[in-house]
Amino acid sequence: xxxxxxxxxxxxxxxxxxxxxxxxxxxxxxxxxxxxxxxxxxxxxxxxxxxxxxxxxxxxxxxxxxxxxxxxxxxxxxxxxxxxxxxxxxxxxxxxxxxxxxxxxxxxxxxxxxxxxxxxxxxxxxxxxxxxxxxxxxxxxxxxxxxxxxxxxxxxxxxxxxxxxxxxxxxxxxxxxxxxxxxxxxxxxxxxxxxxxxxxxxxxxxxxxxxxxxxxxxxxxxxxxxxxxxxxxxxxxxxxxxxxxxxxxxxxxxxxxxxxxxxxxxxxxxxxxxxxxxxxxxxxxxxxxxxxxxxxxxxxxxxxxxxxxxxxxxxxxxxxxxxxxxxxxxxxxxxxxxxxxxxxxxxxxxxxxxxxxxxxxxxxxxxxxxxxxxxxxxxxxxxxxxxxxxxxxxxxxxxxxxxxxxxxxxxxxxxxxxxxxxxxxxxxxxxxxxxxxxxxxxxxxxxxxxxxxxxxxxxxxxxxxxxxxxxxxxxxxxxxxxxxxxxxxxxxxxxxxxxxxxxxxxxxxxxxxxxxxxxxxxxxxxxxxxxxxxxxxxxxxxxxxxxxxxxxxxxxxxxxxxxxxxxxxxxxxxxxxxxxxxxx
Length: 584
Fold this sequence. Notes:
584 residues; alpha+beta; 11% strand; disordered N terminus; elongated
């Protein structure tokens, strides 16, 4: 580690151009040395930042900052301008005749965009923090910030193109190094697809291709869902595109490791015809073991032996060494092991079980031959479809590293966030940039050195597992973030030069269509609370109409146009009493 630190110091000194160490170098008195300029820039770059209340800053300018004055300055003579994280204070002193004193928190890169604001946007995206999260965080601590619109504009026009450009540059370098290092040899690649959401409603499919020899990602393809086609059709299309790019760059692919996707075999056949080479398709062992254990787990008689069966499966795939017959002999020995038969003299490769001769199971009994559990296990291992899959799983290859990269992509583009709605979703450029961030971080830190202990053994750390006992894991050197430095450098250059990329997919026609769609949705939108309000309003209108009818009836009886006025009421009562006998 000491030698590595000294080498880095020497390399850093060579970058700074320390000309004073050259005995023949004589600096010009009229010119500034590069050391002075670069030391000032580095000092400003490495300067720590603090969050300070605006009131405390303005209090410092209530006294004239010009040398030799020190007079009191009225608050009205202090002008403050804010642009996000940028703050400029202009102080006018009436006592002295000097010019206005101007102080600013940081430099403006372009227009109203400051260096601190640009650093905040870059660091938030390169560390997997979304725009909404950062804006809400800044609002929560009551700190001035750029608007969401400005934030998104900077990301779309400057940051995302810079991230993609930096990744494409490193991707080309990794491909050339891989071809040069394994010149004349066939390369083993591994690939797997990742959908942006669970279920069958995905809009994006990311397909990664990784070199199993260098452990670095050599290419990816982000495919979008086509109208009239399902989500499952995106994976083979993406795999064909990225593998086609690698073949055109004279990369000799000897083996390709994938999961048990049925369409990948067809893609490999097309690539073979295009490149006139033979590519071996190998299935990932973990997916096969998982598929076998899923069926075995439903057999009640085999439940006590699940851990033994799982260990024997991994042992069998590891010992296959590219031989299909050897793999079958090891797998067929599992049912014999469960019934207490540990010697197989008729076999060619496995003569006996690898355990000791005095082996005895703990807390479980051997099964009986031809029992239901043993017969069921034999049927699972001798299934025709499974036997065909086992022919492509004899080299003990994995796609676990690709799954790790997919997990890292989730940090930058989480699936828990709604990635597709009617009018708002990750654009293709934004999704590509988020994927590039994950791949840049992976390629830079995948081959880190292992920290060794004092006794010369690797240092371990205890990690708890979701299922099972804790296990040890080797400790590696802390990860680096040099790729973020190059993204910053490129983005700063783009902003200063004004090389803004047009926002993807935003045209006048598209804008009008979006606005029209918004108006239609807003017109048709009705929440359950709105519907409840309408029902209450109809009920209120009905009650008001009923009250009006009652009032009309009462007014009718009280009006002068009514025929009954009460005159002759006594005569009417006498008539009723006279007719009472007739009715009753």
